[in-house]
Design brief:
By secondary structure, the chain is of the alpha+beta class. It folds into two domains: about 50 residues, no CATH class; about 110 residues, Gcn5-related N-acetyltransferase (GNAT) (Aminopeptidase, 3-Layer(aba) Sandwich). It has three helices and ten strands; from the N terminus they run E-E-E-E-H-E-E-E-H-E-H-E-E. The strands form two sheets. The chain has a six-stranded mixed β-sheet with strand order 5-6-7-8-10-9, covered by helices on one side. Strands 1-2-3-4 form a four-stranded antiparallel β-sheet, with no helix packed on it. The chain is extended and about 70 Å long. The N and C termini lie far apart (about 55 Å). About 15% of the residues are buried. Bound molecules: coenzyme A. The site of coenzyme A (COA) has 18 residues, from strand 7, helix 2, strand 8 and helix 3.
């Protein structure tokens, strides 16, 4: 094993992908940082369960893994005489701590734009999200997509941050504005 000494004896590079670290305050203890391997699913599940139990900073609550709540993602479409011209998805996680938050993805066919379809779809999912007791909707939109930005702002979404070089379209990088709409901060009582 060719070990390269680095960073005041705390770090050795064991191979191109693995490093060895001495644990601060524990002179005899070491950990190898390596890619996760196939076949250690059970050990990983145990690690995740232990993390869920000992910290409140992860998404899963103690004992929730394997008992996730039903998915409450949903979708609306715009139907013009049997032809679909627009779609909006609300994607939700199943963890109790985050299931009231939905990620919105919206698109309207060019032939149907500028006629109120996008606003209609957005209004519909905001109403449905409230009905389901969801507390937040969020989305990201390319910074130069002025039409979409204006639509989201007019529906109450607020810019919360910038995701720099977030997407690469035809070889060109673009920033995305991260937006959110808080619907309700009441703690949901519905557990199903
Ligand atoms: C962004 C998009 C969803 C808007 O849907 P739409 O059906 O065209 O929008 P609407 O007709 O409901 O108009 C909503 C608002 O958008 C703005 N808008 C719509 N068309 C516009 C245009 N051509 N120029 C400027 N603003 C425009 C207006 O502010 C309008 O508000 P108003 O109702 O007060 O006039 C649609 O253009 C689209 O799918 N574009 C391509 C994909 C995309 O950008 N998706 C969003 C990714 S985050």
């Amino acid at each position: 094993m060719s070990a390269l000494l680095l960073s005041r004896c705390h770090l050795w590079v064991l191979s191109r992908v693995s490093t060895l670290i001495l644990l601060d305050g524990h002179p005899e203890a070491m950990a190898i940082i390596r890619p996760s391997a196939d076949g250690e699913g059970e050990a990983l599940a145990g690690l995740r369960r232990a993390l869920d139990a000992e910290t409140r900073f992860m998404l899963a609550e103690p004992g929730e893994r394997g008992n996730e709540l039903p998915d409450q993602s949903f979708r609306f479409v715009a139907d013009e005489d049997g032809r679909l011209v627009g779609v909006i998805d609300v994607l939700a996680l199943r963890w109790r701590r985050a299931r009231g938050r939905g990620a919105v993805v919206l698109g309207v066919r060019a032939s149907a734009q500028g006629q109120g379809v996008g606003r209609g779809l957005l209004d519909a999912v905001i109403a449905e999200a409230r009905r389901r007791g969801m507390w937040r909707l969020e989305l990201s939109v390319m910074r130069h997509n002025r039409v979409a930005l204006r639509l989201y702002e007019s529906c109450g979404f607020e810019a919360e941050g910038l995701r720099r070089a977030s997407v690469c379209v035809d070889g060109e990088f673009f920033d995305e504005v991260y937006m959110g709409l808080v619907l309700d901060r009441a703690v949901p009582t519905q557990r199903g």
